[in-house]
Amino acid sequence: MGRMDWMLQLQVLADTAIAMALGGAIGFERELKNRPAGFRTHMLVAGAAALLVGLGQLVLEDHRLDSDLRVTVDPLRLVEAVIAGVSFIGAGTIFARRGSDVVVGITTAASILMVAVIGVMCGFRYHLLAGLATALTLLVLSAIATVERSLAAKARKLRDKQD
To answer: From which residue to which does any coiled coil extend (predicted)?
Structure first.
């Protein structure tokens, strides 16, 4: 195995580390809110997504596979594999309370999907896009929740005045 092979593998590892850090930021927010999937889960999902995409790229570069048989990797198939795997994890975070119309965990399931996509972006080396998507996700999870609580409190006060 040549120096270039090692360099490519180290690049995939770096991409995976970046994905894990970004996924960890989102997971930390979920952890602070005591949600069913937190810091470690989000890190691992983002890292696995980046690693799977990076592995696909390494396979394309592997000259040991050069022969009459052409090895092709469809990047969208890799993404589909990530999404299929993440769907099971996301489904496990959603709970319906017995005897109630309340469903809990949908936002966490959505955040797991988002970190998987962020991991895919890192695997394809779109680090800026991944970082900005992480910032947008954190904005949605924190700032919008604050606005929702504020609007709900105002609506309660309005109802109390009317009663």
So the answer is: none
List, for residues 8-65, the tens digit of each pLDDT value. Answer: 999 999 999 999 999 999 999 998 988 878 899 999 999 999 999 998 888 877 767 6
What H or E segment, with its residue span, contains residue 95? strand 95-96
Task: Provide the number of structural domains found in the chain.
Answer: 1
Query: Contacts from 75-79 at CB under 8 Å and sequence distance 24+?
Result: 75/124, 78/52, 78/53, 78/120, 78/123, 79/53, 79/120
Q: Contact, 71 vs 77, CB < 8 A?
A: no
How far is residue 36 from each of residues 22, 29, 79, 108, 123, measured CA to CA in Å? 19, 12, 24, 7, 26
In angstroms, rounded to a whole number, what is the distance separating the alpha carbons of residues 153 and 147?
10
- Whether the pTM exceeds 0.90: the reply is no
Q: Which helix (H) or strand (E) holds 103?
A: strand 103-104
What is the residue range of 135's domain? 3-162
